[in-house]
Amino acid sequence: AQSVSQHNHHVILSEAASLELGCNYSYGGTVNLFWYVQYPGQHLQLLLKYFSGDPLVKGIKGFEAEFIKSKFSFNLRKPSVQWSDTAEYFCAVTRPNYGQNFVFGPGTRLSVLP
Amino acid sequence: DAGITQSPRHKVTETGTPVTLRCHQTENHRYMYWYRQDPGHGLRLIHYSYGVKDTDKGEVSDGYSVSRSKTEDFLLTLESATSSQTSVYFCAISESTADTDTQYFGPGTRLTVL
């Protein structure tokens, strides 16, 4: 079955700590990969996306993600988190040769302590 | 925000009643989606549309129907609401570029079925 997994259900960090959230998918072939963020009470917003080229992708708010094809992974990173990064983070995958439908991971809740 | 609005934003209803949620977009996107968001499940696709009167089922379509009579409106109907349909419902559109398709989300509708 098609799936996207996110390793951590809930991550708690102090401000200025480094962040890495894991995302793995189970499809072969060409994939497009996304990270979305959902701040409390809000809708999902796009953080960054990968579709081709440089596997290290930079997004908004200092986030970046690295696509490692051999590991079927697309981990999200930030060198120094802020309290305002407290949110839920979702990884998503599409297969461009198989339509436009997205498959989302279950999400990782990040709590940043001031 | 890709010009997406949802109505109502909050609704409380009783088991067995019909409920219709509306998604409205202003930018003439062809693809529209309805998801439900539940803790631990991320976003799950209910139905999607690839044009006026063209719809298809997603992962969790049982108990839901959709209609799209105009490009800008995508309606989700719960024919007879059940408590298991208590959730937050998000509408999304897919924006296509030369590189990839990206989904953008509406603000969500919080539905409680008593």
Overview of this protein structure:
By secondary structure, chain A is mainly β. Chain A has no helices and twelve strands. In chain A, the strands form three sheets. In chain A, strands 2, 5, 6, 10, 11 and 12 form a six-stranded mixed sheet that branches. The mean pLDDT of chain A is 92. Chain B is mainly beta. Chain B is 0% helix and 61% strand. Chain B contains no helices and eleven strands. In chain B, the strands form two sheets. In chain B, strands 2, 4, 5, 6, 9, 10 and 11 form a seven-stranded mixed sheet that branches. The N and C termini of chain B lie far apart (31 Å). The chains are: A mainly beta (114), B mainly beta (114). Chain A binds chain B through residues 9, 32, 34, 36, 42-46, 49, 51-52, 90, 92, 94, 96, 100-102, 104-107, and chain B through 31, 33, 35, 40-45, 48, 50, 58, 90, 94, 96, 99-108.
Q: Categorize the overall geometry of chain A.
A: globular
Helix content of chain A: under 10%
How much is the average pLDDT of chain B?
A: 93
What is the β-strand count of chain B?
Answer: 11
Note the main sheet of chain B.
7 strands, mixed
Distance between the amino and carboxyl termini of chain B: 31 Å
Distance between the termini of chain A: 40 Å
Order of helices and strands of chain A: EEEEEEEEEEEE
Approximate strand percentage of chain B? over 45%
Number of beta-strand segments of chain A: 12
Q: What are the SSEs and their pairings?
A:
The complex is a heterodimer of chains A (114) and B (114).
Chain A: E1 4-5, E2 10-14, E3 19-21, E4 24-25, E5 32-38, E6 45-50, E7 56-58, E8 64-68, E9 73-78, E10 87-94, E11 103-104, E12 108-113
Parallel strand pairs in A: 2-12
Antiparallel strand pairs in A: 1-4, 3-9, 5-6, 5-10, 7-8, 8-9, 10-11, 10-12
Chain B: E1 4-7, E2 10-13, E3 19-25, E4 31-38, E5 42-51, E6 54-57, E7 64-70, E8 73-78, E9 87-96, E10 101-105, E11 109-113
Parallel strand pairs in B: 2-11
Antiparallel strand pairs in B: 1-3, 3-8, 4-5, 4-9, 5-6, 7-8, 9-10, 9-11
